[in-house]
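Ethylmalonyl-CoA decarboxylase
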Amino acid sequence: MAKSLLTTSLSARTKLLQTGVSLYNTSHGFHEEEVKKILEQFPGGSIDLQKKQNGIGILTLNNPNKMNAFSGVMMLQLLERVIELENWTEGKGLIVHGAKNTFCSGSDLNAVKALSTPENGVALSMFMQNTLTRFMRLPLISVALVQGWAMGGGAEFTTACDFRLMTVESVIRFVHKEMGIVPSWGGASRLVEIIGSRQALKVLSGTFKLDSKKALNIGLADEVLQSSDEYKALEEAQEWLEQFVSGPPAVIRGLKTSVCSGRELYLEEALQNERDVLGTLWGGPANLEAIAKRGKHTK
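Tokens:
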């Protein structure tokens, strides 16, 4: 009986929220393997992932000679890391930061210059929107630790995280207008959700340099960290994140999934999805243990 109540036909929108599903495919004129072959031609840097026993992952954008700008290979590696995180069942949280005390300066200009046709630009946009949307939908609570500069695509990446922490000297800047384009990795749409349409229009059209104080005032940053040292700031970020990921992985992941569905689905679909997530937890180990403990506390 209970199982039948949890079984519903999923709409196309609901299916998009399932792990490993991308926004674009061949029906949209997107051919992922062809894009991958193009991106392979632009090496440099790496995307490094450390999965810790406490359920917090550390994703490092590592191309310090170019302020951690994304090379083509790094874009491919980001997708690989996202797939790895989709399969990390013990994961609860994720911190994204850049090597050598800076976040990310966007795309490597060598790749940008070589991919200058509208067709290439759209294909690259679809690839990165796919990747960052899957990243955003991970059942992990994610934090962007912004040290130094987050510009262009780097600024867009911060919006794919659930939270943004900044050091005192750090700056977020959407420089796309000065490059004669608009955000193409989904950053404009996500920015509207985070700070509202009026503020987003100001930030994008004014190409504002958002220091930590300004970013905090408009709601883009969630907190300004005390330390500007690369490693101490990372420790602070982990301590900050731990308050939200304490507890069983299944519960934390369920909460993130429920919030994602509430953000992206129609109300009826979101309610159904929330119900289905509950069905995986109600009467489970974490639920029964919590009930037993509460019973003891009331005695």
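The radius of gyration is 20 Å.
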